[in-house]
Amino acid sequence: MTTAKPNNTAKRRNSGRSYNRGAITTKKVNNSIKREIKPAIAASERKIVLFNKPFDVLCQFTDEANRQTLADFITIKDVYAAGRLDRDSEGLLLLTNCGKLQNTLTAPNKKTSKTYWAQVEGEPTDAAIKQLCQGVELKDGLTLPAVVKRIDEPTLWPRNPPVRERKNIPTSWLSITLTEGRNRQVRRMTAHIGHPTLRLIRYRIGDYTLKGIDNGHFKIIADEL
């Protein structure tokens, strides 16, 4: 395994990157979207990159508004994100050139679990946590059962800008493990029980974690498939 520091010249080098080797693509067939998985690539060519995404960084390599993107940090060519992480969320993002792995981690039927650490406003009761565990009714339907528990505040890098906390209102931390990936799901779930999420870090995707990866840095994993 190798660790590497961010390189702000990567945007220029990656502007012409290709995503068609082992990637998942979609095409419209009879007005519906069909998911296609490209043939698996040779094991010797597989790449897995684990990136600790900072706050306010987009999960893409280019941006017309000149906001920070993956190209400001990732120097590895021909990899693409397996799933997404919101601009205002932090933590683990996996990039790969392997369509099979990308499909395993993102296809809804695979139900790959992901663990998030959420700093929430207030202190959820046992009843509120039980609601999250059993599933809550959001606008797009009932969430699947989750594993939710209180945790001590983790040792983390400082966020820039810092989280805005309200005076006289305590905050607490939850570990939330999901097997689905709806848009802004963790934030919507905690808001549903009356405890808005102030800071959100993804710690784990399947068997991969943030362990040993500083914020804004990445780790290359080779020959693990």
Automatic annotation (TrEMBL):
Residue numbers spanned by region Disordered: 1-25
Gene3D superfamilies found in the cross-reference section: Alpha-L RNA-binding motif, Pseudouridine synthase I, catalytic domain, N-terminal subdomain
The record's section on Pfam families has: PseudoU_synth_2
Q: What class does this enzyme belong to in the EC scheme?
A: isomerase
Q: Where does the Pseudouridine synthase RsuA/RluA-like domain start and stop, copy by copy?
A: 48-192
- In short, the EC number is 5.4.99.-
Keywords assigned by UniProt?
Isomerase
Q: What is this protein called?
A: Pseudouridine synthase
Q: Which organism is it from?
A: Pseudoalteromonas rhizosphaerae
